[in-house]
Amino acid sequence: MVGTDELPVSSHVAAAIVDLFVYVVVLNLFVEYLPAVISETFTLSILTALLLKGVLELVVAAKKRVRSWFTTATGAVGKALAALALWAVLFGSKFVVLEVVHLVFGDAVALGGFFSVTLLIVVLMLSRAAVRRLVVPGAPRGRGRPRAARGRAPRGRR
Q1: Which of 1-10, 32-41, 84-93, 94-103 has the lowest mean pLDDT?
Q2: How many CB atoms lie within 10 A of CB 120?
Q3: Strand, coil or helix: 10
Q4: What is the pLDDT of residue 137?
Q5: Has this prediction a pTM greater than 0.85?
Q6: What is the pLDDT of residue 142?
Q7: Which runs of E-coded beta strand occur in the chain?
């Protein structure tokens, strides 16, 4: 039996759970306000958010790998090929997302077309980044370092 002691949770697990919550909220806002985005039930929207989390993590990993290839490429041909590969990952990932969602959920979930899924992915990633900045202690907010790291201690109550 678990007592009142806190269970240790990996920061990666905590971040993934927060990401999933953010994805569920954003996805359901898209379902509510964009007629092309459909999820028949809330349970399906949770499962879709989980699927999106997995697929987008793979896309981000592929993008980082191609970007590192771009930075290490030498010569005009190498840079051009790396830039083309980066564009293919960013452009093609939208179709991958649409196809995977259709294969897994069929007609019960639809993310619309290329433009709606692109907007959805951009909003998901921006929302995820914003929420992570809010909930991670000590993460820089705004420009520069946190207040305490700039040499000034935050003011306490007097």
Answers
A1: 1-10
A2: 22
A3: coil
A4: 64
A5: no
A6: 47
A7: 37-39, 109-111
3 state DSSP class of 113? coil
Would you put residue 136 in left (φ > 0), alpha (ψ -120 to 50) or beta? beta
Dist. CA 74–CA 78, nearest whole Å? 6
* Nearest one of 14, 42, 30 to 121, comparing CA atoms: 30
Q: Looking at beta carbons, which pairs linking 33-41 to residues 24 or more positions away fall under 8 Å?
A: 34/112, 34/116, 36/110, 36/111, 36/112, 36/113, 36/116, 37/110, 37/111, 37/112, 37/116, 37/120, 38/109, 38/110, 39/108, 39/109, 40/108, 40/109, 41/108
**Residue 44 pLDDT exceeds 90:** yes
Alpha carbon distance 139, 148 (integer Å): 11
Strand partners, 109: 39
Asked if 128 and 67 touch (Cβ cutoff 8 Å), the reply is: no
Q: Which helix (H) or strand (E) holds 11?
A: helix 11-33
